[in-house]
Amino acid sequence: MAFPDKYVDTIQAETGIRIRHLSHLTHGTYSEDGFEKGLRANLEALTEALIDARTMEQGG
Predict the structure, then answer these.
(1) What helix, strand, coil percent values describe the chain, rounded to 5?
(2) Is the pTM of this model over 0.85?
């Protein structure tokens, strides 16, 4: 994550919300493979967040 851990830790501790990292996919040299890997990582992070939210909603 681009923010210092102390900020991330404070936000998580004060809100109970887990912060996820999503890449803006605009850094470094462009390559199709790099873009696809970044997009896949973003989708995996989003999927995990949605599953966790649903689990928490159901009391798990």
Answers:
(1) 60, 0, 40
(2) no
**Residue 58: both structure tokens together:** 């159901």
Residue numbers of the chain with a pLDDT score lower than 70: 1-3, 60
Rg (CA), the chain: 14
Residues 29-40 have pLDDT tens digits of 889 899 999 999
Token code pair at residue 11: 């936000």
The H or E element spanning position 15 is helix 5-15
- Distance CA(33)–CA(56), nearest Å, equals 34
User: Counting Cβ atoms within 10 Å, is residue 29 exposed (0-12), middle (13-18) or buried (19+)?
Assistant: exposed
Asked whether 2 and 26 are in contact (CB, 8 A), the reply is no
